């Protein structure tokens, strides 16, 4: 199981978040990446193994998750 200690992790969010408080934060270790809601910093954290996170980021960059329009 991949683990990440949220209390000792260094969390960061995009500089493009705009300061509205409606973004996510990420933290990484050599083996894991954690994702949490910036409005609920003591709330749940999704933890991914590095290869899983890399596959997700690669998919985002290649447009795999872009919305498909019916128009």
Features of this protein?
71 residues, alpha+beta, 1 helix, 3 strands
Question: Can you give a write-up of this model?
Answer:
The structure is a single chain. The chain is α+β, with helices and mostly antiparallel strands and 71 residues long. The chain has one helix and three strands; from the N terminus they run βββα. A three-stranded antiparallel beta sheet has the order 1-2-3. A hairpin with a 3-residue loop joins β1 and β2.
Q: Structural class per helix/strand content?
A: alpha+beta
Alpha-carbon Rg, integer: 14 Å
Mean pLDDT: 87
Strand order of the largest sheet: 1-2-3
Indicate the proportion of strand residues: 15-25%
Order of helices and strands: EEEH
Overall geometry comes to globular
Main sheet record: 3 strands, antiparallel
Uncertain residue segments:
none
The percentage helix is: 10-25%
Distance between the termini: 43 Å
Give the topology, please.
Elements: E1 24-28, E2 32-37, E3 46-49, H1 50-62
Antiparallel strand pairs: 1-2, 2-3
């Amino acid at each position: 199981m991949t683990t990440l200690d949220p209390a000792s992790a260094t969390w960061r969010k995009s500089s493009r978040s705009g300061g509205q408080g409606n973004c996510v934060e990420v933290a990484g270790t050599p083996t894991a990446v954690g994702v949490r809601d910036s409005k609920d910093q003591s709330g749940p954290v999704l933890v991914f193994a590095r290869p899983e996170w890399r596959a997700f980021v690669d998919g985002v960059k290649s447009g795999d998750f872009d919305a498909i329009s019916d128009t």
